[in-house]
Amino acid sequence: MSLGNFTSPAFGYAFLQLGVVVLFLVSAWRAWKHSSARLVELLTAFLFGLLLEQGDIFLFGTYRYNAHWVLLGDVPIAIALTWAMIIAGAMNITDALGIGATTDDRRQTAKGIKVRRSQSVVLTAPMADAVWAIVLDLALDAVAIRLGLWSWTIRADQGWFGVPWGNFFAWLFVAFWFSFFTRRVRAQQNGKRWQWAVPLLAFGGLIATLVPFVALENVGALPFVVDDSSRYHNQVWIIFALTLALFVGVTWRALLQKRVPRETPDHWLLGVRLVIHLLFLVALIAAGIYLTAPLLLVVALAMVAVELVFLWHWRNELRGVLRSLPLVRKKNVLTRNSIRGIE
Known about the structure:
Blueprint: H1 3-7, H2 9-34, H3 36-59, E1 63-65, E2 71-72, E3 75-76, H4 77-97, E4 106-109, E5 112-115, H5 119-147, E6 150-152, H6 165-186, H7 198-217, H8 237-256, H9 267-286, H10 289-292, H11 294-313, H12 315-324, H13 326-342
């Protein structure tokens, strides 16, 4: 086997997709350790990823994937797996921060204090989840198209460096609708089986939200309308900006309130997010993309900073996780035994 085989695009895509599969399998194992319900949530998020991608390509046809991806229909399996981890990670951040559950949401039970599933959890939390999701896409999509991972039908001087504003608008509501219905299922007693219906419900909500935006952005992207990228209206960025401002405002207001975490931070999913950021940041610099689009570098660094804030906020929990690792525990035992031997 020659060195050229390792530098070929096919090898790069194979390595990338294998890495995604490994990350997902570990995420699934950790979800199963948490609860069977959490594993079902992750699996349905994967199904939702397949459905939303296939549905978007079929209905709007505004983008296509590189031929090197392993596809299920028109959708790379690795992309759907990544969607699942992104959504799960966003929901965990919101729950670990206690967004949507204030100190007033606690009630005394025979078994102790329990957090009540209030309406604020069902409404505010999905908006926060959407913010954590868009933090990723603002940094990666414009880089991905320059790497050839996928391509949009609009020109590079349209939208956000060649990415339609509708894509970012959709990212907000992909996370919002899946989280909204999943949190409704969580609020039900013995409602786990209803989680399997969430992908369809969330997709319905997404399409209902997205079609009006697409109609304003590019009527040629609507179903059964002849595509014409010259019809693209860049002014729709204002609608996206106002929507994002609303979601960020609700999230910020929730952060300023007294909160009760609903679960511990999942440092694995936080790590997956950081890996995605760093992967595209390195590509942005190594491929010289920042030279022609320096603003992308600024945005990428800002989004990495957001991830580092999460890690800093939960640094004590992270230390505890690291200390609990078998290798670290063994090292600590050996160190203590060595100290006793010296004494």
